[in-house]
Input
Amino acid sequence: MSDVIDQSSFRFQFNVTIEDDRSFRKLVGKRLQVHFDREAHQVQALIIWAVVMVAGLLAVAIEWATLQILSVLIVGFVLGQIHAFFLAWQVFRQIQDKLFEVDRVEQMTWHVTLDDTSIFVRTPASERRTSWHSIQGMTDTPTMVAIWYNSGYGFFIPARAFFDLSARAAFVEWVSERLRSATASSSAINPPIGDAVTR
Output
């Protein structure tokens, strides 16, 4: 449930579901993908593939294996890598779901208050007040509005915490304005080196 205290502050109180947690983890993953070096990963995959091929050709050359055995080994290797990738992803998801259950996150009530100067987030386990200058951004999705402290760490307000779509849209616009103001005031305080005032 949300309350608009006045035009300069909002207050939310909600509980998080396992579906909320999974959706937020997906958002975090998407945000962290920008830090993933695809080219390095592709080069690594090519090197591994080349090593496997050279080892296989050497095995054929010294008659340790036939081309049929080599083909079966390569197909098995590729399928094993694909299986390992999906298995690791599934295990990671199960661990995260289990931690959600063990930490009793679903039973925690989140209290979030936002005003013109800061954001205050309180749960039974922690409290955090953060000024708008320290907020990196916001992501609006159909299931939640996420506010980011950095690339992979933040919090979210589930869509159901808003009274209706117009209340949510007004909140998103309000947060966007706070972020623009914080960015503008930070730029004014710390101008780029080329723009420094000289006397």
